[in-house]
Amino acid sequence: xxxxxxxxxxxxxxxxxxxxxxxxxxxxxxxxxxxxxxxxxxxxxxxxxxxxxxxxxxxxxxxxxxxxxxxxxxxxxxxxxxxxxxxxxxxxxxxxxxxxxxxxxxxxxxxxxxxxxxxxxxxxxxxxxxxxxxxxxxxxxxxxxxxxxxxxxxxxxxxxxxxxxxxxxxxxxxxxxxxxxxxxxxxxxxxxxxxxxxxxxxxxxxxxxxxxxxxxxxxxxxxxxxxxxxxxxxxxxxxxxxxxxxxxxxxxxxxx
Length: 256
Hints:
With about 260 residues, the chain is an alpha/beta fold. The protein has helices at about 40-50, 55-75, 85-100, 110-120, 135-140, 155-165, 175-180, 185-195, 210-220, 245-255, and strands at about 5-10, 25, 35, 125-130, 145-150, 170-175, 205, 225, 240-245.
C-alpha cells in the first residue's frame, strides 16, 4: 500500500466547499451500506440450536472477530474467489465451520450448521441499512448525484437491494459473482464507469475495505472514500483518500 497521506472529513467540514466535480458515487455494500439485521452471533447460535447444539452466546460473539481474521487471510491469499459463485460459498462455509471449531461444536455438525447459517443471509430480511445510510442517499439523490453499487457479493445481491427498498437509488448493481469480476480488480471499476458513462475523475467509491475498496478504486483513478465507523488509525492510504465516520459527512462533502 502506498505510504502517503489522507484527509479525514469530520463534523467541522465547511459546507461552502466548492464544486468537487464529482457526478457519480459508487458504493460497496456489506459493512458499508448494510449490516446484519440480527447479530451474527445470535444467528449462529440459533442455527446451531436448530441442529441440536446449544452454545454460549457470549462465546460465539467473542470469536466472530477471529472468524473475520480468517476471511482476511483467505482474501489476501487469493481474493479471486469473489468472481465465482461456488467458490464464494465455499469460503463462507469454511468461515462458519471455523467458528464451529472455535466454539467447541462437534465436528460431525460443522457442515450442516455452516450451510444453515449461510442460507440465513440469502434474503433481505437478514439485512438492514446503517442508520446514516437512507438519509444520506436521499440527500445525494436530491443533489443530483448518480449512484451505483460495486460489491463482492453473490447472486442474491439484486434481490436483497430490491427487498430493502433501495433499488430506486442506484442505476447499476454490480455483484462480483454475476459479472465474473471482483474488487480490487481494475476491470470491475472500469466496467462500472462504462455502465454509467462517466470518467474516473467524475466518480468516487465508498467502502470499508482497504484493499478491495480503497486500493481498487485508487488504481483506476477513482477517488477512494473509506467509511470508518469505528475510528481506526491509518498511516498508509493512497493519496487523496477521504476517511469519513458517517454518511452525513459524505453528503456534506459533495454539497456545493
